[in-house]
Amino acid sequence: MKRREFLKKAVIAGTAISIPSGLDELIRSAFAAEAADLAVVTGPSPEKITRAAIDALGGMSRFVSRGDIVVVKPNMAWDRPPELAANSNPEVVATVVRMCLEAGARKVTVFDRPVNDARRCYVQSGIADAVRPLGVDVPYMDERKFRDMSINGEVLKSWPIYTEAVEADKVINVPIAKHHGLAKLTMSMKNWMGVMGGSRNKIHQKLDDSLLDLARFIGPDLTVLDAVRILLDNGPQGGDIADVKKTDTVIAGMDQVAIDAYGATLFGMSGKDLGYVRKGHESGFGSMDLSRMVIRKLTLLS
Amino acid sequence: MRFEIRGDNVRTARILSQAAFLLLFSFLFLQTESTGQDELGYPVKVFLDFDPLILLTSLLASHKLTAAFLLSGVTVLVTVVLGRVFCGWVCPLGTLNNMMGVLRRRNYRSRGLAWRRAKYLLLIFLVGAALFSVQLAGLVDPLSFLIRSLSVGVYPALNHALVSTFNAIYDANPPGLVQVSEWIYAQVKDPLLAFRQPYYRQGIVMTSLFLLVLGLNLAERRFWCRNLCPLGALLGLLSRYALLKRSVSEGCTECGKCATVCPGAADPDSPENWAITECYNCWNCDDICPQNAVRFGFTGKKSGTAVDLGRRRVLAAGAAGAMTVPVLRAEPALGHENRNPMLIRPPGSLPEREFLERCVRCGECMKVCITNGIQPTLLEAGLEGLWSPLLVPTLGYCEYRCTLCGQVCPTGAIRRLSVEEKAKTRIGTAMVDRNRCLPWAHSRPCIVCEEVCPTPEKAIWLETVEVENQKGARVSVQRPRVNLELCIGCGICEAKCPVEDRPAIYVTSIGESRRKENTLLW
User: Fold this and answer.
1) For B451, which of A140, A144, A181 is closest by C-beta distance?
2) Which stretches of chain B drop beneath a pLDDT of 50?
3) Degrees (nearest 5) of the Cα angle A188, A194, A195?
């Protein structure tokens, strides 16, 4: 068996293997042919694990075509520095953006509608500073660009949504995995609250159904869940370093239900513990049955 | 050959100086806004640091000196040597009055001595009040007045006018025009417009007063500067024995032309009555004199006089100032008597008495407040506290890691806090209104207040209870409870509560760190 084939097989079998640095190219070519449901990569460098995870799904060119207008939507809703795991990891976000550009995206935009003051969130999260040097726009959201859209969901019939998030050629979700008082955990599906306008604090009354309606409506082309640091308690904004756990992981895929189901395992839970995941699975929007999907797991040593 | 400074050169230099200081002032005003960094980056309050009226009255009222105040020593020194150059060359409100003067080109004539005297009496009134610890100078200090008027009234209105125009074009979407308008919008947005439309209570009052001051130029050019400005009066007194003197030679034919261009109404056409205390050192009189008889210099005989105030008037003004103290303090605004729960002071505010001794109502904290939550009081702090800052959480909460208000406060009424100190500073306490709260009153899930609560260990905790809902079904709800030990009263819970009209959780001043008499826990 050739080394390349071995790698492929080992990974497809779900075995965690360790790959020395410098083999990124090799991994990319190894995975290019196969379709996988999820890629789970662990390692000390947020940039490298992000790259490896997307490469493991077939590379960014599978999701972003030359000339595309791309929206990358991180969670940068809170006035907290990266160490406190309240916002998506800036290196993960920057790597996704860089890969979009490498894939030939015409324009990449990064934004969020934060809960705290937008200026502080953009700066203190470290995301604006990480992404702007790539020549990418990180605009504050423009109130005028929220338009009432017909969502036709179970509970969300219509809501003001940020037009750019809907009109972009490709949308990439880059959430972080965190504790949440009502949803229990917030990961990819809940991240779309960041493109909602209006009084979104009202949807908590029917949160699980609303999140499913929303995630289905936006339908991102790719989701990259940042679990470099996860927030175990006092979420979603945290503030105590003792509540942060370093898990050095990135999970990439297209099925938000599957990603959130996998993310739950990092907290010792499973998908069925989360209402919106369960509902997502039951409605056929996605699958939380991790045992029946192809999960590529990798561990990078550096 | 002797080098001679000619009047018209001086005039050009003066206009350049006025323009430069007005631009600097405007620049610093616009920079009084968060960039998202912890520090503001520019010394936006520096004009107030150079204001000796603020120095004097703060010193008298609070007996405290902050280092920044020493800069006003520079203004004092310049005035003692050169006279009121601040009024003629520097003061941004003076410059605006100067510019407004074009509306009334020919009316440089004074309304007479009685009016000019008013500003001195106002000054003495303010000093009298300050001597007995009531700080009212900020209400009429020209720099405080200008910053407050712009922050709370004029700038929000201008911003609204511009943004709504751009938005109207954007919505109408006329081809061609919308591209132009959006391009202009993009250019002016960052440098000139507010990050978010500011809203202030009493904005209309501040705008009206500002327009009134500018409008008074129609009655008499530089009406404010000549007759009302207490800082001008203080500088006038300091300039009484200024070293730079104006002399008029024998060549003067008393044609009276100089009096038509004198902004200070200093009676330059009358060698006996010329009032050095009213002179702004603009040198217009030198410029216009057909005989070239006017000269400014450090040598030569001094001429002129000072404004005669009259001993009885001085005493009356001082006594009136002193009298404000018992009159104001006889209302229940201070200390134990003040039970106004809505008086939530910005974080780092001194205890109420000391706070009012220092606050000059400049409105810098209101301008810089990142959420627009700091608003001018009306009567919440008594009449003595008029236009001092309070937080109105429904308009904007106190951002947990923001310390900008303390950074811009010119007098230390709001202390400058580190982010760590700020996190431990209580400005009030939140309490749940169980009759309005969704989980408490209506068995519906919510938790928004808990979600947004910023303390590392959340000051709002959720009590999970199984209850019956309106359909008789058993449902599990999480009811928010406030942990009094942890709540700092930032008000984000109130600001984000989905019961928007009258939030089901709200902050009052109880428990604030700055006032022992207002504690709750012990």
Assistant:
1) A181
2) 1-3, 335-336
3) 110
